[in-house]
Write a structure and sequence with these properties.
By secondary structure, the chain is an alpha+beta fold. Helices cover 40% and strands 17% of the residues.
Length: 70
């Protein structure tokens, strides 16, 4: 029997150099980037307009990893 695993896309706040254990996850890179931006704004006071630029979104997306769901 072949089992197909669905990997989740995840990003960790600590990967950005912050002392924070938050983990954002989603089914797509856009979901994870949006969650990371929302977390950065709501929990760390970052500027949403600065995080929404295409360059910054690409920088955030580079940190995405794939993991099996727990």
């Amino acid at each position: 029997i072949l089992l197909e695993f669905c990997y989740m896309k995840v990003i960790y706040c600590r990967d950005f150099g912050l002392d924070c254990n938050a983990k954002m996850k989603g089914n797509s890179a856009d979901d994870v980037v949006n969650a990371a931006i929302n977390h950065g704004v709501s929990m760390h006071g970052q500027n949403v307009k600065e995080l929404q630029t295409p360059e910054k979104r690409a920088e955030i997306a580079e940190k995405i990893k794939e993991e099996l769901p727990a």
